[in-house]
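INTERNAL AUDIT FORM
Audit reference: QA-55
Scope: verify that the stored structure record matches its stored sequence.
Auditor: D.O.
Record contents follow.
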Amino acid sequence: MIKNPQESLPPNLANAISGYAWQQIDIGFSSAQVFRLEAENENSLYLKIDSRTSKFSLRQEKIKLEWLKNRLLVSEVLLFAEDETKEYLLLSEIPGVNASDDSLKNDIPRTIEQLASGMKMIHKLPIENCPFDQRLNYKIEIAKERMINGLVEEEDFDEERQGRTAEDLFKELLATVPTDENLVFTHGDYCVPNVILENGNLSGFVDWGSAGVADRYQDIALLTRSVRYNFGEDWEESVFAFYGIEPDWKKIHFYRLFDEFF
């Protein structure tokens, strides 16, 4: 547990979570600080805190979660606040554990089946009138801006790209842009820890800051990479079988490369 920094919070947020004990959650690679808040006889809550200049806007995640309410299994937005330097997002808890939890590794096929089922659920969401655009024309420009402004973290590149520069990767990116986009609603960061299971069954999804209309391989590429990381490379192919698709390895390579810029 960490000391509750009530004095540094916006007053309305401080009042809403007065009396809660804080536990920092370190799973995942988000720039946001994430805390689980617990109080006797109260439901647990989650608080996300991030810089207002972060690559992932908590305000945008709030807007997306509100749009997704009653559409998918997501947390309820309880409060959004901001001050001069930070954004704060207070969320309800989704019951269960994230899909990378050790308790689930005694039945990896079941876990991967639930991961694939969740991805299909997200991809079936109608995209007509969806206000969130994550298509390539838009995101490639964002990636270019991040490269020009020195915001791409080269030291965090995947192992096979260590030692290369963002400029080098961007040239490869432009040379391998897919000729088509199979557009669906995507999570945008569909990795194993962002899926919550309860008693082995799908319970919900977290971290929606990158969600929007994009090629389904945006999610497929990142999920299969995450499955390799969490369960071993032998399990990667099972994702395609459970999802029901023949893998397009050119798109998988492209969207994993693309992810290096974010």
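Auditor finding: record pair retrieved intact. Strands lie at 21-25, 33-38, 45-51, 77-82, 86-92, 97-98, 183-186, 195-198, 201-205, 212-215.
Action required: none
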